[in-house]
Hints:
heterodimer; A: mainly alpha; two-stranded antiparallel ribbon; 11 helices; 74% helix; B: alpha/beta; Rossmann fold; four-stranded antiparallel sheet; 9 helices; globular
Amino acid sequence: MVQSLVHVCLAGISAGMFIWLVASGLTLIFGVLRVLNFAHGSFYMLGAYLCYTFLRFAGVDFWLGVLLGPLVVCVVGYFMERFLLRHVYPLELPYQLLLTFAMVLIFDELVKMIWGAGSIGSPTVPGLSGSVSIAGRDFPVYNLFIIAVGPLVALGLWAMLEKMWWGRIIRAAASDREMAAAIGVKVPALYTGVFVFGAWLSALGGALAVPYVGLLTTGMGEAIIIEAFVVVVIGGLGSLKGAFLGALVIGLLTSFGTRFIPTLDMFLTFILMAAVLLWRPQGFFAES
Amino acid sequence: MTAPLLEVRDLSKAFGNVVTANNLNLSLTAGVLTSIIGPNGAGKSTLINILTGFIPPDSGRIIFQSQDITYEPIYRRVRLGLCRSFQVVNVFTGLTLFENISIPILAAHRRANGLFSTVSGEKAVREEAHRILQRIGLQEQGDLPASALSHGDQRVLEVGIALAARPKLLFLDEPTAGMNPVERIKILENIRQLSQEGEVTFVIVEHDMDIVFSLSERVIVLHRGDVIGDGPPEQIKADPHVREVYLGEEVVA
């Protein structure tokens, strides 16, 4: 029983780290640009497909694929912000959601056109493909690696926002964009930068998910964006700390749900979200 | 006579039928503490918004230090030295005073320091931020979040933030709005002193006549998008037309 609990926990945490990578970019972009990007899950999907393609067809090393795939997604994110999103900032939220939702459909169709509609089996990572014995049972080394990556990214983000001077500018712009502009911050360029960076985080999650998920499908973007939305609702829109803890909670809840009450599975997540919305609609870590 | 610091030529702006700037021509001289007054809806805030780049004009030209800036984006005007503060308190409440002051310094020195600022660059920013905090008398509270300050001190901080961008010309939009008399005197003393130091030329938009007449060297009166009075305070006080459309209103009210 203890053995099983430990493993359910570890599985939940590793699943949570992928949600964290997507949710961190989502919440950062919302915090600064005030745009809720539905297509953020598509960056995750594109990151995965592109990383896979680099491995499979360019024959590169897995780690080079993890580097290159998200870089290509950064270019996609750049064009999306610069030529599409920029025009809907002055409009109301529903228009932004419609545009980004349209982007979800476009990205899905593009992926189907390029890689086909079927699922793609993904490779294992040399060096991290084995498993280790934890509490008397095997646990994949790669998943342990993922459990380490999540907090490292969180630490990096924290250092960037709190300790580096451009983090200070990002926080200032998030707090009041008009004011930031008035004191000389080049706001449009900052928006592009933050959006591209958020896209990179999500794509990094996707690329790292390639050996983890086993199968790449066009639905993977939607699946993770829904979980990421639940996470940012629970943690509070715009809060990175909330996104990290929220992702852990959702990862664990799903993992325990699947193990002990399989019939409720995803349902539990939404019950939690509904409860948070009723009890504390601004989330747990939202800035007032 | 030296070239004016800022020159406005034939500036017009209308929102639908409401004309907020009607072929305005103005020039501001460096070192002269100027106030812009006018009844509500006279176009004072719109004028500031146009001059600082927040609203585009319908027509006309804006020349700052002999350079046409009519269509320059906000951040470029700021880097040239044309800055503003807002009517409502605008500080980054989640950041400390020190961080608040350092944002415009960072934004202004960004290119000089490179993307990943070095320790020495950071040191220069720290020193300058402390110097400004000292200048506005808030050095003791440097590490407090701005939200911990009183309303009046937040307004003082706001002036500090504006100064940190190293403006040559600084528009203050109702700097004493919502202040108690003590805070009011403090900030006015601050402005007077800074103006005398001569690095920054202040232009104040105000409602409060006492402030305008006690502080300014020059008063510009706007009414429905037109300049109806322009001169030293005594002259404006005595101007029959100004009294009629503006001061008269106050007496009646």
